[in-house]
Amino acid sequence: MDWKPDWGLRARMFLTMFLLFALYIVFAGVITEYAGGGLPLFAVLFGGMSLVQYYFSDTLTLRTMGARTVSPAEYPDLHRSVDRLSQQADLPKPTVAVIDSRVPNAFATGRNQRNAAVAVTTGLLSTLSREELDGVLAHELAHVKNRDMMVMTIASFLSTVAFMMVRWGALFGGRGRGGRGGGGIVVAILVSLVVWIVSYLLVRALSRYREYAADRGAAAITGNPAALASALGKIAGEVDRIPDRDLREEAEMNAFFIIPLKSGVVGRLFSTHPPTEERIERLRQLEREMTGV
User: Fold this and answer.
1) Annotated catalytic, 287?
2) Which of 1, 139, 184, 198 has the most beta carbons within 10 angstroms of its beta carbon?
3) Which sequence spans correspond to the domains of the chain?
4) Lowest mean per-residue pLDDT among 1-5, 118-122, 138-142, 174-178
């Protein structure tokens, strides 16, 4: 199975970014009218901080997750797998990191293909077979190849700005022009809230689709979709047996992981990932198409 550009993913990325920027152009005009210069100034300052975060996203994410960059001498098998899969994916080799955690999971981070990192937990290394681990690593490399992290960082930044404006709307709303007072506060908060909700849903929809795209990309890199399907099943089973306390320690980084740590109806509704069962079934179907069985 050859790697093919995922035009569905690219179209969704473009549409999401276009809608978000259009939404924020309208938002900026309305919020400035009712909130004066306070909120735009806040947005500029917050944007500067986010640019710093964007350029150092790999280092910041690894540090936040407690991931440690490891050498080939420390984890020779892991490095050999990343070397081989990077070549098969036609990518520069990313930084390799390991997290000391019993929760079996993995994630990729970085602003572009030349500044990327792939991290796995010790729980993942002890849970999966070599072929299953290759499937997970290929999934993360597919995220890098699709430039998912760059798009999600920008999209999430825009959503976060709206969320922060909801929180700060009451503070700045009363300072609008024309003495609008309480009316300005209400309008600033309502507009910010609507923008945040729409942004949140757009980002979640894009995030779920990109997981399907990365699964297909992993199948193209390894030629073995069944291995990733098996890995997803094992990871989900292991996560279900881990105490809630251990899961809560890493839940804030849910969007980065190959499988989300939250469960339940509400968790699935707002999850950054599609249901694991659906992902496994799609991979099984892809395996049947490739083998003709």
Assistant:
1) no
2) 139
3) 7-291
4) 174-178
To 5 degrees, how large is the angle CA 114–CA 115–CA 117?
Answer: 115
CB count, 10 Å around CB of 11? 10
Six-digit token string for 242: 């881990």
Q: Which residue has the higher pLDDT, 48 or 244?
A: 48
Q: Give the count of beta carbons closer than 10 Å to the beta carbon of residue 245.
A: 7
pLDDT at 265: 45
Residue 62 to residue 82: CA distance in whole angstroms? 17
CB atoms within 10 A of CB 170: 12
Of the residues 140, 211, 238, 250, which is catalytic?
140
Look at 30 and 16; give whichever has higher pLDDT. Answer: 16
Nearest to 155 by CA among 212, 207, 213, 210: 207
Query: What pTM, to 2 d.p., does this model score?
Result: 0.76
